[in-house]
C-alpha cells in the first residue's frame, strides 16, 4: 500500500516512518496541505493521510476517486473539515477517534492554571529580573464552579481533574452519561453559574458558535473560557466584544475559527491581516496556542499506530471500527 501524506511536519514523520516499515507500507511525505490543487500528488497512491486543516471538498474527493485512491486516513479525531456526503459510496474515510484524551484534558488544565495564576506574565517578568507580583493575582479554585460542555472522552477526564481541585463541576451534554459522578444541568444553568467554562464538544451545525453574543451575556462576569476543542465553537467577534467589555477574567484558545491560515506555520515575518486575531492577541488576559493540546509523544505514537491499523483493517477486509460516514439529519 502506498500512502500520500499531506501537511507533513518533522514530528509526524518520527512514528509514521518507523511504523510504516513494520506494516510494510510506503509513505510519500508532502509538506503541502491537501486542497484541490494538491490532490494530484496522490496519483498512484492507495490512500491519503490528512490532518485537521486540510480542506477535503467534493472536487478533490472526486479527483482522489478518479485516481484510484481508496481511502482517506484522517490522523485526527475531528472530521468537520471533510465533505462526508461527497465521500458516500465512493471512498472510505477513517479517523483516530481517541489518541490521547488525557493529553488534551491536561493541556486544557495547563491553560486554565496559567491564565488564572498569570504564569505567562510572571515568566516574562522574572526573565527580565522584574520580581514584582502586582497584577498577578488569581483566584483559589477550591469551592468555585467549573462548567464542562461535552462529556465525552476528554470532558470526562476534565471532570475528574477539576473535581480533584475541589471545584464543583456542572456539565452539559445533550447525551448525558448517567454513569458519571457529575451534575448535569441545562446549558443556560451552566453558563450562569460557572466560574470557568471549558469546551469539549465536537464542531457540528448544532454546536457552531455555541459561544456567541447571547451565551456570553448569560455568563458570570469575570468568567474564564477555555477552548481546546474546535475554533468554530466560538464566535470570535462576540468573544472580542466580551473581552472589550471586561466580561472575562481570562480566555485561552488552543483553536481558532480561522486557524487554517496560521496555525502550525511560522508567520512571524508576515503582516497578519486577520483583525479579529490581532485584537485577541492584544488582550493581556488572552492566551492563544496553536492547536497543540494533543501534542505529546504518546499521542504521536497512537496517531500513527491507529492510522496504520485503520488502513490494515481496510486492506484485510476486517470491520472498520474507526470509519466515519455521512449521517443525514
Ligand atoms: P467525544 O466524541 O468523546 O465527546 C464529545 C461529546 O460532546 C459527546 O459526549 C457528545 O455527546 C457531546 N456533544 C455533542 N453535541 C453537543 C452539544 N451540542 N453540546 C454539548 N455537548 C455535545 O470527543 P472527545 O474525544 O472528547 O473530543 C472532543 C473534541 O475535542 C473533538 O471533537 C475535537 O474537536 C477536539 N480535540 C481537540 C484536540 C486538540 O489538540 N486541541 C485534540 C483532540 C480532540
Question: What's the alpha carbon Rg, rounded to whole Å?
Answer: 21 Å
Count of folded domains:
2
Looking at the overall shape, the CATH architecture of the largest domain is 3-Layer(aba) Sandwich
**Portion of residues within helices:** 25-40%
- Which segments are poorly predicted (pLDDT under 50) over 5 or more consecutive residues? none
Shape: globular
Distance between the termini: 35 Å
What number is the mean pLDDT?
A: 96
What attributes characterize this protein structure?
329 residues; alpha/beta; Rossmann fold; seven-stranded parallel sheet; 11 helices; 35% helix; binds nicotinamide-adenine-dinucleotide
Question: If you had to describe this structure to a student in words, what would you say it looks like?
Answer:
By secondary structure, the protein is of the alpha/beta class. The chain folds into 2 domains: 2-99 and 297-316, NAD(P)-binding Rossmann-like Domain (Rossmann fold, 3-Layer(aba) Sandwich), CATH 3.40.50.720; 101-288, NAD(P)-binding Rossmann-like Domain (Rossmann fold), CATH 3.40.50.720. It is built from 11 helices and 12 strands. The strands form 2 sheets. Strands 8-7-6-9-10-11-12 form a 7-stranded parallel β-sheet, sandwiched between helices. Strand 11, helix 10 and strand 12 form a beta-alpha-beta unit. The protein is globular and about 60 Å long. Nicotinamide-adenine-dinucleotide binds at residues 77-78, 98, 101, 104, 149-155, 172-175, 200-203, 206-207, 228-230, 254-255, 291, 293-294.
Amino acid at each position: 500500500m502506498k500512502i500520500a501524506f499531506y501537511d507533513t511536519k518533522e514530528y509526524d514523520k518520527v512514528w509514521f516512518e518507523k511504523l510504516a516499515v513494520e506494516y510494510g507500507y510506503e509513505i510519500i511525505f508532502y509538506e503541502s496541505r491537501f486542497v484541490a490543487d494538491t490532490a494530484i500528488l496522490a496519483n498512484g497512491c492507495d490512500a491519503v493521510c490528512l490532518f485537521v486543516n486540510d480542506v477535503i471538498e467534493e472536487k478533490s474527493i472526486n479527483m482522489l476517486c478518479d485516481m484510484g485512491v481508496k481511502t482517506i486516513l484522517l490522523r485526527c479525531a475531528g472530521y468537520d473539515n471533510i465533505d462526508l456526503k461527497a465521500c458516500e459510496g465512493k471512498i472510505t474515510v477513517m479517523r483516530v477517534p481517541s489518541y490521547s484524551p488525557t493529553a488534551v484534558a491536561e493541556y486544557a488544565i495547563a491553560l486554565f492554571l496559567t491564565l488564572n495564576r498569570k504564569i505567562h506574565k510572571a515568566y516574562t517578568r522574572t526573565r527580565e529580573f522584574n520580581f514584582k507580583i502586582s497584577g498577578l493575582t488569581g483566584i483559589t479554585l477550591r469551592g468555585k464552579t467549573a462548567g464542562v460542555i461535552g462529556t465525552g472522552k476528554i470532558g470526562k477526564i476534565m471532570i475528574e481533574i477539576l473535581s480533584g481541585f475541589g471545584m464543583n463541576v456542572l456539565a452539559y451534554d445533550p447525551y448525558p452519561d448517567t454513569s458519571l459522578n457529575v451534575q448535569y444541568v441545562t446549558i443556560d444553568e451552566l453558563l450562569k453559574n460557572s466560574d470557568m467554562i471549558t469546551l469539549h464538544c465536537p464542531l457540528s451545525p448544532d454546536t457552531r458558535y455555541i459561544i456567541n453574543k447571547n451565551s456570553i451575556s448569560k455568563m458570570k462576569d469575570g468568567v474564564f473560557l477555555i477552548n481546546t476543542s474546535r475554533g468554530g465553537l466560538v464566535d470570535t467577534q462576540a468573544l472580542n466584544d466580551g473581552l472589550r467589555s471586561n466580561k472575562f477574567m481570562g480566555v485561552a484558545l488552543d483553536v481558532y475559527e480561522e486557524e487554517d491560515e496560521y496555525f502550525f506555520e511560522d508567520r512571524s515575518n508576515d503582516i497578519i491581516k486577520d483583525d479579529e486575531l490581532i485584537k485577541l492577541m492584544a488582550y493581556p488576559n488572552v492566551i492563544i496556542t496553536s492547536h497543540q493540546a494533543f501534542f505529546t509523544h504518546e499521542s504521536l505514537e497512537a496517531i500513527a499506530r491507529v492510522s496504520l491499523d485503520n488502513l490494515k483493517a481496510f486492506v484485510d477486509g476486517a470491520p472498520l471500527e474507526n470509519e466515519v460516514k455521512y449521517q443525514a439529519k
